[in-house]
Amino acid sequence: MNPPKPISPFRLSSLLRLQNDPKLALQLFQNPNPDPKPFRYTHLSYDLIITKLGRSRMFHEMEQILSQLRRETRFSPKEIIFCNVISFYGRARLPDRAIQTFESIPEFRCQRTVKSLNSLLNALLKCKEFEKFDGILSGIDKFATPDVCTYNVLINACCSSGSLGDAWNVFDEMLRKHVCPNVVTFGTLISGLCGDSRLDEAFRLKEDMVKVFNVKPNAFVYASLMKGLCRVNELSLAFELKKEMVANKLRLDSGIYSTLIAALFKVGRKDEVFVVLEEMRENGCKPDTVTYNAMISGFCNEKDFEAAYGVLEEMVAKGCKPDVISYNVIISGLCKEGKWREANDLFEDMPRRGCTPDVGSYRILFDGLCEGMQFNEAAFILDEMVFKGYAPKSASKTKFVEALCQEGNLELLCKVLNSLVKGNVIDGDAWSLAVSKVCKKEKLSNGSELVDIFLKDTETVPIR
Fold first, then answer.
1. Where do the PPR repeat units fall (predicted)?
2. C-alpha closest to that of 288 among 322, 328, 335
């Protein structure tokens, strides 16, 4: 029997591309052949394995491959590999690792350009590490010249941090440096202005982008303007913009229609929602989760929970799976109306419906039960929440403990404090409140006696 043919560098790249399991891909990369001779890896094989590991957040293994790449002498890696690594760290909210990767690029005999700079700035933007921008930008003239993408990220960062004045300063600098703004530049500025309710300025900028800069608005620009108009109940103008989009042959997506649907509910024009839905279908735009959630929210605000449940059923019938937001909106609405049993029933039914409750689900139900003085049910939800690694908001914990102290239910208070302690989610305010209230009520001399009474199953009371 002939021994299997050794895998060539080209064949390895093909196999890596076909392998969907990153762990198996890593094994293949590390042991392509039984032959102990050093394997001649290609740039493509490095690129493929680093991308697979990065997308799977196997960062330790990815760093090992990068260390191996650093020792490679037959070629110099291309900058795109490091741009991808920086982006992976940005998505994982690991800004320091993204910066370290950017700074280490020269160690790989690779020249940094504006591409890796933009990747880093975008990663820091995702992480909301705006204060690190200045340090990165200082001295960039030595290896890169900012382009339109650079300025777009900076403008986005300014708008995201609420500094519209700084965003305009960056825009002015663009023009001084003769960098032509594009539709992303204007879209970001217009979105920021609309978010700040400066609609007149936003519409003037829309006119300028066409007349002065010869840049046509895209769907994002229109969506931002329509959201701004709907926020101030200017629905007539919002529908005029929709007509303008059609005239400009721009595709109306579900986000546009969802914005209009939510606004119609808000101003009490529910009957027109079904007209919008019909138009969606005629234009070949299928309602998605966002669309249905806008309807669920609208019906819940009108306290029409039967209709909200009907939307859930329609979603399933139309092959659109409800997400956790769909259920959280209804649970929140039921709690606000004092329908705690119905809210709890829906909460418990979520897994059967194929949707796992998240921390928001637990917090909504817990707060609703506390507000309705359903303390036993709230304690049960709290215990389950802590068991799953979640925690109520700090103010909610303190409010619950205070309510139990005022009610004088020592047994339930003991259970609640035990849950908080076991989950290591008790804070100083809640514990101090329990100590002061109960020591006074029970005429205890100090908090240690309270510990003995309340926390027999725990050795210490961690406070954070």
1. 147-181, 182-217, 218-252, 253-287, 288-322, 323-357, 358-392
2. 322
Close Cβ partners of 196 (under 8 Å, ≥ 6 residues apart) = 162, 164
Using left for φ > 0, alpha for ψ between -120 and 50, and beta otherwise, residue 287 falls in: beta
The pTM (predicted TM-score) of the whole model is 0.79
Span between the terminal Cα atoms of the chain, in Å: 67
State the SS3 of the chain.
Answer: CCCCCCCCHHHHHHHHHHCCCHHHHHHHHHCCCCCCCCCCCCHHHHHHHHHHHHHCCCHHHHHHHHHHHHCCCCCCCCHHHHHHHHHHHHHCCCHHHHHHHHHHHHHHCCCCCHHHHHHHHHHHHHCCCHHHHHHHHCCHHHCCCCCHHHHHHHHHHHHHCCCHHHHHHHHHHHHHCCCCCCHHHHHHHHHHHHHCCCHHHHHHHHHHHHHCCCCCCCHHHHHHHHHHHHHCCCHHHHHHHHHHHHHCCCCCCHHHHHHHHHHHHHCCCHHHHHHHHHHHHHCCCCCCHHHHHHHHHHHHHCCCHHHHHHHHHHHHHCCCCCCHHHHHHHHHHHHHCCCHHHHHHHHHHCCCCCCCCCHHHHHHHHHHHHHCCCHHHHHHHHHHHHHCCCCCCHHHHHHHHHHHHHHCCHHHHHHHHHHHHHCCCCCHHHHHHHHHHHHHHHCCCCHHHHHHHHCCCCCCCCCC
Q: In the numeric block, which tokens belong to residue 303?
A: 């306290």
Mean pLDDT across 207-227: 95
Burial class (CB in 10 A: 0-12, 13-18, 19+), 215: buried
Q: Residue type for 434, please? A: A
From 47, 30, 111, 113, select the one nearest 85 (Cα to Cα): 47
What gap in Å lies between CA 17 and CA 20, rounded to an integer? 8
Q: Is 72 left (phi over 0), alpha (psi -120 to 50) or beta?
A: beta
Q: Which among 237, 251, 161 is positioned nearest to 206, based on CA atoms?
A: 237
**pLDDT, tens digit (0-9, with 9 covering 90-100), for 266-314:** 998 988 998 999 999 888 888 999 999 999 999 999 999 999 999 999 9
Are 300 and 333 in contact by the 8 Å Cβ rule? The answer is yes
Residues 39, 68: contact at Cβ < 8 Å?
no
pLDDT value at position 214? 95
Contacts of 147 (CB under 8 A, 6+ apart): 114, 118, 179
Quick: pLDDT tens for 225-266: 999 999 999 999 999 999 999 999 998 988 899 999 999 999
At residue 413's C-alpha, the angle toward residues 410 and 418, to 5°, is 125
Buried b (16+ CB within 10 A) or exposed e, 227-239: bbbbbeebbebbb
